[in-house]
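Fig. S4 source data, part A: sequence.
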Amino acid sequence: MIRLSENPALRADAARNRDMVLEAATRVFASADAEPSMRAIAREAGVGIATLYRHFPTRESLVDAVYRDQVDRLTRGADQLLAEHAPADALRLWMDLFGDWLVTKHGMVDTLREMVDAGSVTHLQTRDQLLAAIDSILGAGRDAGELRADVRADDVAAALIGVFTVAGTSAREGQGARLLDLLMDGLRTRRAEARPSD
């Protein structure tokens, strides 16, 4: 009998299935108004329910994996965006990633709340990770002279939560996008106005 750990092809297949379930769960959680069933997530992933439970034995384990994956994407996203864009542009694009993260929480908020109450997910750890991501972009922006030196990461986080609370999580269009652009205008350095000629 060949064990999974002894067969690289089977291991790769299992890893693919896990990734498919994680991606499908992220999509389903983002689009759901209420918590979706595990069967709905398995269907979206194109796998059987047994495959889903093999990788994620409980709803909590799946929610935990999706939540941590999204936080990791946010923190890694800061570095990736800084490598490809000027700091001010990177920050504005990161705000969209933050909105995506909030959208994903829609369909898992009840389970996530229970996990926070039970202590299996801590807001403090997540908050520290997100603030570190924001601070890295702000630091690069200060060094480049693009972003104000007096802006703090926790102020940016609070402003983002305010924007998404008021305008919803549809940040790429409509009021949300306009508010994020206004926020960015306030974060940029103020260039000295040219003095009128005498």
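Fig. S4 source data, part B ends here. Residues 1-5, 192-198 have pLDDT under 50 and may be disordered.
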